[in-house]
Amino acid sequence: MQLTLTNARIPGERGLMGSLINVVITDGVISDIEFVGATGAIDLTQVLDGESIDVGGRYLIPGMWDTHTHFTSWSLMLQRLNLEGVESAREVGQRVKERHHTHPGTMVGFGWRGSLWAEEPHFSILDEACADEEVYLFSGDGHSVWLNSKALEVRGHAGHPTGLLVEDDCFAIWGSLSDQTPEQLDKAVLDASHAAAARGIVGIVDFEMGWILPDWRRRISNGNDLLQVEFSVYTEYLDRAIETGLRTGDVIASTDGLLRMGNYKVISDGSLNTRTAFCHDPYPGLTGKNARGILNVPYDELVSLMTKASSAGINPSIHAIGDDANTFALNAFEEVGCEGTIEHAQLLAWEDIERFAQLGVIASVQPEHAMDDRDVADVLWEGRTDRCFPFASMLKAGVKLSMGSDAPVAPLDPWLAIASAVERTRDTREPWHPEQRIEPQAALNASARSRIAVGQPADLCLVDIDPLYASVDQLRTMPVALTLNGGRITHNAL
């Protein structure tokens, strides 16, 4: 099967204004690239046999990958109470009250960030708004959940002093809240897959909790062929993955090559907003055992788990946000001697940046978090933010960056991540630590897994604006005209 894209441009070719290329795709692979020149559109009678699409001089780039998602959770959060941008606990209570009137029944919300609120979250605020139904409100970072008294009772936490559950208690609720049938879930995932393809995405790494292999196999067999998916496992299912014989990179049968085994995920520490990211220095105002955050997995146990996984051919992906958590994770990679990723890598010791490169550990980062967290980081990590989200320093040291969203913590849109990495702002404010901005081409490279070259998979995206010369607002709202996944059109707005 052959498809020819005519009249496409390569971003950044300012010395060849008006020059065009013709890209031939055969059986899902780029088989030929022909330079057309600056004399005008190609004569369509001269193209090779097969279908052709005139792309009208739009810019051709590799298809995007989001290398850190919780895809089912993202799909469901699109249907739930949005609490992004609320400025106080009382405002949350008002939102809950309004939602309760229009959508009676168990309520799930997401997106509040209360680290800088004058009043702490408390079950009594939610009880005033909705006392007769369960209320579960997840923080924007997904590491805490705020419950009313009804929900606390149902979940076995009656008598809890605040109603705010963090880390493992939060994750246990996160994984048990879906009240939808598999058919309803798959419909939500299909809708989210269409939305992802419409932003130029061809593949995701799915860190959804649970044994999600059969879910994705079912979705693909039922026609959801919009995305390539790498699914991961947590400790609960590591033995099952090993016993099944799965290894990182394995293609799952009967999925048309769309589903592959990913990595083994360990959440080693918490998050900044919940003050549970494990750091070298204590958080302002905190004393005692957890003043520096929470290390969810002791170092010796982390080494043991990583050894077990890597020995079976499954690469580890270690969630580490605080600087000490990143140091421990790098120590473990060095001791085990395996490949893998550190997810987030938000606050780093300067000496650890070099170690990423030396050990060959990939930094899987989410630049939009820098914009979400800049104000909180300036308070909770005061005096250390020069080494917070240090993307430019990492690239200079030779660290491989892989970018994603952590959806639903941030929207599943690679252009938001690219804009934040390139400009370090998303509004009229001054860039936050502008010395850590990276070039647009570097951000594009960190968002893709292929190149525009003969022999590469035809995972492609066409956009209306040259991303190498776009403003921050243009990047964030980049018009995507066409997405091809293995040569198949998955989004078409031409």
The termini sit apart by 21 Å
Mean pLDDT: 93
Strand order of the largest sheet: 6-12-13-14-15-16-17-18
How many domains comprise the coordinates?
A: 2
Structural class: alpha/beta
Question: What is the CATH topology descriptor of the largest domain?
Answer: TIM Barrel
What percent strand? Answer: 15-25%
Low-pLDDT segments: 39-48
How can the largest sheet be summarized?
8 strands, parallel
Report the CATH C-level class of the largest domain.
Answer: Alpha Beta
Strand tally: 21
Describe, in plain words, how this protein is organized in 3D.
With 494 residues, the protein is an alpha/beta fold. The chain has two domains: 65-70 and 185-450, Metal-dependent hydrolases (TIM Barrel, Alpha-Beta Barrel), CATH 3.20.20.140; 88-174, Diaminopimelate Epimerase, Chain A, domain 1 (Roll), CATH 3.10.310. 30% of the residues lie in helices and 22% in strands. The protein has 16 helices and 21 strands. The chain has helices at residues 71-77, 89-102, 123-129, 149-154, 168-174, 182-197, 213-221, 238-244, 299-311, 323-336, 350-359, 368-380, 391-396, 414-423, 440-445, 472-476; strands at 2-8, 20-26, 29-37, 51-54, 59-62, 64-69, 81-82, 107-112, 135-139, 144-147, 164-166, 201-206, 228-233, 259-267, 316-320, 341-344, 362-365, 401-403, 460-463, 480-485, 488-492. An eight-stranded parallel beta sheet has the order 6-12-13-14-15-16-17-18. Strands 7-8-9-10-11 form a five-stranded mixed beta sheet, with helices on both faces. The chain has a four-stranded mixed beta sheet with strand order 3-2-1-4, with no helix packed on it. A hairpin with a 2-residue loop joins strand 2 (20-26) and strand 3. Helix 1 crosses helix 6 and helix 2 packs parallel to helix 3. The longest helix has 16 residues, at 182-197. It is globular. The model is unreliable at 39-48 (pLDDT under 50).
